[in-house]
Every structure is written in structure tokens, then in C-alpha cells.
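Hi Y.,

Following your request, here is the sequence exactly as I used it, all 109 residues.
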Amino acid sequence: MKGTQAAESADKDIPSLRERLLSGPSGPGELLVLQGEPWWFYTACQAHDCPGTALAMLYSPDQSKMVGRLTARCRVWWLGEPTAEQREQIEQLRPLDDAALKEDSALCE
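Below is the corresponding structure, written out as C-alpha cells. Let me know if you'd prefer a different format.
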């Protein structure tokens, strides 16, 4: 995934971020209207670690554009340069779990 190199683990025994995100539950997309345009909201997360390794994203079929928030290794990355409204929607639909962002967590590796 573009712009996510810092979220990858240096430990070669740990699967790639893509593999981890696709290992957990995900649901069907939810259609939203932002600034008069349709956007689909999707989520993906690592099995048994959804708060710690997760992706919440918006996809515009009209613009062929995706923006989102990646949470991994106790950090948050915004991907695709989301607008303030897009960030707000993502934060409302999938609030962050503050416990997953604590530096003393074993998930911070």
C-alpha cells in the first residue's frame, strides 16, 4: 500500500501489513454522501488486533479516489490526503481506541 512503509514491521517473521489487514473481519461498504458526491466507507483490520492494526477508508467511484486512516504500531497515518470533512466522517464512523495507541503497549513493536 502506498505511503505505509513506516507501518510495516522490521521483523521478517511478522506478515506484511496487507496480509495482516486482510486477515480480520470486514463488512460490506456503507454508502455516504459527502459534498453532494457518493463515497463508500470500508474497514479492514488484523485478526485478533482490530484496535491496533486497522484501516478505515472512503472510496469515491466517481473520482476513482481513496482516502483513509491507518492505525498500526501505536501510530496513526492519514492516507490519500483526506479533507477535514472526510477525516471527521472516518473518525465518527470508526473512532480510535486510545488504548491501542499507548507507547507501552506490546503492539508498538
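Residues 14-94 form a domain with the Inhibitor of vertebrate lysozyme, Ivy fold (CATH 3.40.1420.10).

Thanks again,
Q.
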